[in-house]
Design a protein that fits this description.
two-stranded parallel sheet; 5-stranded antiparallel β-sheet; mainly beta; 9 strands
């Protein structure tokens, strides 16, 4: 169970797309001759995502509040990315997912009251 929930005022459908990189749970050991030995180290590893959204100024501000921690007591945040959250569906399968920020959100203004936001997340198993 996650620590908090993706705010309902933020979009949950990536307008600009997304990238998924599956986790690597393999251990490779070089040998003196021949191919490296490969074995599985972990039964599950988190996948990494880069997701881009189109947002208004108010939504971009809310995203930053959610990342750092909301200023009002009624809305929880992720404490600078330390806490996990639910409520943002997996972009490919649309299944419920638990996420954690890998880095702070990047917000770029495209036009008046229009922002392109990029977030890097890990999908927790």
């Amino acid at each position: 169970m996650a620590d908090t929930v993706w705010p309902g005022t933020l979009p949950d459908d990536p307008l600009y797309g997304w990238t998924e990189v599956p986790g690597d749970g393999l251990s490779r050991t070089e040998t003196d001759a021949g191919p490296a030995k490969v074995r599985r180290r972990f039964s599950s590893t988190p996948s990494q995502f880069s997701i881009q959204f189109s947002m208004t100024k108010a939504q971009a501000t809310r995203l930053m509040e959610f990342y750092t921690n909301a200023s009002d007591a009624g809305s929880a945040g992720t404490s600078g990315g330390a806490l996990t959250f639910d409520g943002l569906p997996h972009p490919r399968t649309e299944a419920d997912a638990t996420w954690r920020f890998l880095s702070p959100p990047v917000i770029t203004q495209d036009a008046f009251d229009h922002f392109r936001t990029s977030i890097k997340l890990e999908l927790l198993p």
